[in-house]
């Protein structure tokens, strides 16, 4: 048992470190390092532009989408090399956020289902960040129950005509392309009548409207489709096989090993280390210590769980299901941590003007962003179902609509 | 990175599981639970024959000379089987104390006897309520004899020798405490068995009256040695707890698959599934924290105190959580003496206290993290 690199890994790390050292946008390092959940921003620059520039620079030198094949803009690296890269990229990895959906979900789906000429056309600019992609699955009537979506695609000559509405689409407002899950046959049970496409987000009839979140920020959008035409050659997978195609996308989302999850613990520990309470330093207070210790072991537990997965990768094995716990644990933890940090400040925890931005403002931003973390990419409840069913082997939920034609499923509870 | 046990170590774990499945069934555990024996002597002999008692003891002292990682995988299986033997007292505490601070003669006297199953050892630290702290040690040592009362002493009624924490000064510092080795069969002690939460592991009160004792380590070094012992034992106990947590989770899962109510397997209800998923989450966090503890223990890393505290807290919580909710999944049957659920519930809650309570380890963890941060 050790944490040492193999000689090949060490060599890769040295090369990566040297390149990052010479090329990363150092001027933003401190600000990126200080970012926390709900607050990743640059004071004097547009983060989207900085992110795109960094991605392009990486791509030009062969450091973009490491695990992708070279012909599609990647490096053909092993999974462990990708993890080492993430470790070395450190705070600059925050700049990859706007590409996560494209690189983590859309790209792999295109790779698995698109025509060869499309792969060669669309994947390299996706890898280099010149084109940004989004994923159009969720709908007002289909969140956790994605297969309940209602957006219609109807064949018209060589095209499909799309009508409907998507919601919670991350980054749709700055995306160039998207992968889109639609209903092509409402007369069969819901999982069987779906078909996947990719489309140009600038197509006529696509309208993107930002959603103002409970936090006040706008990371997500509603996307409306009115008679949008998509050529049939942009279909991904067979007609009616969209559900299976979407599973490829979602599996990729959940298999991102070593991806940092925000727990809020380092921020809280740092804060408690300097905070003075009425009767002395917070860090010496028994009650504070007890709270900190309970979160400390969750944060370290997640860290070492991730290292176990990385070790499996390093040995060329497939990581076990342990990694599925990350988002579930971190989501509610960051919410609790933020609540507690504000509680430690007493009445002044409520204030968040510029002079309080470092402390209260930071934890307030965390608090207001956290509910989203517990919902997006699979709610806590869906994550528990996944663990119960796929890891523990418990029975799936009884689905009353499974064998019912989609257009016969009731749409209102009362 | 190779943050995992080796294939040989995993093989040893399988071997231990196979052995314990055969020799330490719940039925065998119940013999001790029901008070028909104070520990499972036959299992103890078997553990010696398998080489498990001396797995981390050097060959020069009659052990297998493997190491702590090997001991960790065996500990996990001991916890999974709820083994009713004085393994933790003897192997994690007494043997480790001798390895840390014993003289050559002391090692020669006790370590081969431990490895062969002839000697049971324990640590006599606590004196009534309270967590590990020099100020809670009142038993005195003067002129080579001990006077005072230790309670509770795990496995004290079956132990052949004890490592005893004694007061040798009154400066109010850690240096007031020294450790001694006492042959409990040589007179000067009175041992009384105590009823306790987990009858599968005995607890005792030991009264020392002008009892002859040999120093273990240098005078005034007792607290420093003891802290190292507790850190090591915390990691090893964490593996027992992880094993116990996993077993409790499996029992709950299996019952949820078997039991039908409202015309379906109860494991198909989300209320039950989510409870089991949360048990899996705690057990996984505990396992990962314990692996880090194992790494720190096996390399004697500077991170050991922090890693041990994290493993201790995480594994204690996980075992308590899994044992508690295993009963809940079982419903009324889980609350019967007949079902095995309560054996893990008892063990989980007894183990949560044995090396000092959660409050103590929480405090230790944050203190070490604070120091590291300040450095």
Content-based structural category of chain B: alpha+beta
Strand content of chain A: 5-15%
Class by helix and strand content of chain A?
A: alpha+beta
Tell me the overall shape of chain A. Answer: globular
Based on CA atoms alone, the radius of gyration of chain B comes out at 20 Å
Summed up, the helix count of chain A is: 12
Strand and helix order of chain B: HHHHHHEEEEEEEEHEEHHHH
Name the biggest interface.
A-B, 51 and 50 residues
Q: Tell me the Rg of chain A in angstroms.
A: 23 Å
Quaternary structure: heterodimer
Low-confidence stretches of chain A: none
The averaged pLDDT of chain B comes out at: 97
**What is the ordering of alpha helices and beta strands of chain A?**
HHHHHHEEEEEEEEHHEEHHHH
Largest sheet of chain B: 4 strands, mixed
Share of helix of chain B, binned = 40-55%
Largest sheet, spatial ordering of strands of chain A: 1-4-5-8
The DSSP helix count of chain B reads: 11
How far is the first residue's CA from the last residue's CA of chain B?
26 Å
Largest sheet of chain A: 4 strands, mixed
Describe what you observe in this structure.
The complex is a heterodimer of chains A (414) and B (375). Helix content of chain A is 42%, strand content 13%. Chain A has 12 helices and 10 strands. In chain A, the strands form 3 sheets. A 4-stranded mixed sheet of chain A has the order 1-4-5-8. Chain A has a 4-stranded antiparallel sheet with strand order 2-3-7-6, with no helix packed on it. Chain A has a two-stranded antiparallel ribbon with strand order 9-10. In chain A, a hairpin with a 2-residue loop joins strand 9 and strand 10. Chain B is of the alpha+beta class and 375 residues long. Chain B has 11 helices and 10 strands. Chain B is globular. The mean pLDDT of chain B is 97. At the A-B interface, helix 9 and helix 12 of A face helix 7, strand 10, helix 8, helix 9 and helix 11 of B.
